[in-house]
Amino acid sequence: MSTRPPQGWGDTENLTLSEAELARCEPISAEGGKTLRAFCPFHGSDHQRSLRVNVETGQFKCFACDAWGYLESARERRCDSLDRPAPRRMGTASAPPRRVPKPKPAPAAKPRPELAEIMARYRAALPGSPGETYLAERRIPLDVAQCVGVGYAAPGEWAHVDETGRCVRGWHHGRIVFPHTNPAGDLVSLYGRAVGDAFRSDFEKSLKHDHLPGAKGYFNAQALAIGSEAVTVCEGAFDALALIAAGAPRVVAIFGVNGWRWDWAKDACELIFALDADTAGQASFRDLARGAALHGKRVAYLEPGAYGGEKDAAAAWRAGVLALGDWRAVFPANTLEPSQEPLPERASREPRPMLWGEALEACDGLDVVAKLAAYERSHVYFEDGPDRLAGLEAVLWDAVAALPTGGALPDELARDVFAWKTAAFMARRRRADDLPPAWYDPAQAEHRHRYRDV
Predict the structure, then answer these.
(1) Helices (H) and strands (E) in the chain, counts
(2) d(CA 376, CA 325)
(3) Residue 288 lies in a domain
(4) How is the chain split among helix, strand and coil, in percent rounded to 5?
(5) How far are the Cα atoms of 76, 122, 152 from residue 155, in angstroms, in the given order?
(6) Is 361 domain-assigned?
């Protein structure tokens, strides 16, 4: 299968987290109320509270995936302070920094019942038209286009008109018409793609694509509300037709990534992003994948290799190189880590097992004698190297998960958890030239980065 989950966010990306999103991550007070510790929404952690939030500054950082940034309220306070005129200093004439405006949300897409009759005429006109011929050139079967409501507007019949009723942005070969809908299937707008690719001038190329004025919807948006398979999200209507023809069960085209609405995708738990293979498409995927993680979705994406060197799904299908594989295997239940479960389910899992973060906090309650014994044990774990720490972590994780939440941590298990915790801390804090020889063993390189970059 040519899909894989998104990678972690690196230390060069400055992210934003709203208070509502933070509240879903079950924050708890720490360090005397100066910080909050929460599950990380960026890599889907529900085992330990690896996200640390500075209450005063609003800065956060995840110690597991390196995601960092600021709370939305902290950014707003910063912008407000920049808006206030700074006191003028003697000999200084510089103006205060400009405030960068926040991006506006996508306008509401209201149903437009008056478009239903127009779209019905377009659908009836598609068979035998230049629109069907153009679809055939792109290897799109007529029945595939008809099942998702595609139509054809003959020359002079395009619904985009001016105040006098004259057709605007008409095209002498007509247009293939795609309905904009909402998840309920209501028409909210229309998109017309000029038939034929022989555009001879910049003026003619400007007529290639046309959306009716007003808010946009999605193409085939009703797929968000119908079915149980993963929803495939692409950028263009022809990409959607290609993916449907290739066998993808639920496909939605969003007419540009800036138009994505999370409230429309509330019933879709699994998303597959099939965006363009260029740099902009991959950057857009990362933005949407981050939002999906914050909304409790499981995410995969179609790798550029699935396009066989073409720029998008439509071009790959036209060239006969689009490779999707078995779409039923994208989210097999037996391969999902617990950290990938949707965030909203955490509050409803009763009784749930003890979380790893709870065990790390509980082992701090050991008495002095037990802690001294655990300290001695931690040096043994540390000397044995990163593979030993990784293997021990996996064993302890399973032992902790077998305990009920709110239960007591057995003394021996608590000592082992405390010893592992101390050894991992030493690995992160030691200088590179002060590490045991096992940390330089090439055979242990696989787990070395988990505890220290050497």
Answers:
(1) 14, 16
(2) 52
(3) yes
(4) 40, 15, 45
(5) 51, 12, 10
(6) yes
